[in-house]
Amino acid sequence: MLPKPLDLGVTIAYLLCRIADTLEDETRGPTGSREKLFVELARLTELPGDWRTRAQQFAAAAKACLRAEAPKSEVELLEGAPIVVEALAGLPSWTHPHIHQCIAEMTEGMCNVMRMTEKDGHALGLADLDQTLTYCYYVAGTVGEMLTGLFADYSPAIAAQRDQLMPRAPAFGRALQLTNILKDIREDLDRGSCWLPRREMARHQLTAETLLRPENRREAVALLDQLIGVARAEADEALEYVLSLPASEKGVRLFCIWPLFFAVLTLRELQSNPAVFDPNPVKINRRTVQEVMEQTRQLADRDRELRALYLSFASGLPKGLSGPRVSHRTARPWGGPRRGNPRRLSSLHPQPPEFRRWVGTGCGVPQLRFHLGAELRRPASSRRAA
Asked: Is 0.90 surpassed by the pTM of this model?
């Protein structure tokens, strides 16, 4: 779908984001020790002169911190980290700053969440909606910014739209991320995690510990619908992002259209649905996915028809307030690294055969399953489902 070298660049970025995600979800131990792993991952994406040695050391240290129950795919992912860094080094140099900036900001945000959770006595959930959406920025909005930078450096036509795209990129990622958080409420709680806002839960007389109780279904569904309204508002902004991409870049457009439309259809399935709090996940079926892909292939360069199709999917969804302007080059509640200037151009080096085999078969990574920030999590065992 994506043209070369964007396809490989996005795949490598996806794997690096998944490594960060595995550090967040599957490692255990003192916060300080885990923070060092995040910092080292970010440093590796700068490709220091000794990156080969450091990548091996990072993989060994990260694997040693994994919880005993960590899925095999996550163990293999960390073991393969040196291969991913080698593949990153082989990408054109203009891709490197965008990927590094994303990973550096994402890992810094994850560290801040760990510190905050420790300060709050490891209470489940985040303090309020602003913190939930800020978390969504760190793990998904940053990806939207990274992709926008990659797209713009690849395509002069997209570069001409950078000023329209970049302010909307975080909302694009947040919409997809929040949708998946809502879809995976039960799975997250079963794993001992929760990214819902405690203040909003309290307004419905709920806590993360009481959310799943059958006697609280009415209040839980009311909370769910409130947050669906927030996700809908973010998705509306994300649509403007998609329509700001030049119609001539059909592959890039489809790459962004599909996850957005799937997210909105998922929100429709979640709306007022108490089954969200049951063990079996609620999601759209494969036939719907195929139909949407077929429709949008025909409409990818037709803004009016795309907007109409989106609105038909979003019809009936509540609409709340969109998230805070936690975005490119703006102040962030939890801080974050300063961004550098992207550099351009170098030839794409051949990738090692073991990398191609590993991407194709290891860690549950289908070809370009990435579909942006909302798919940063592992496919089966965590809060990112297909």
From this structure: no
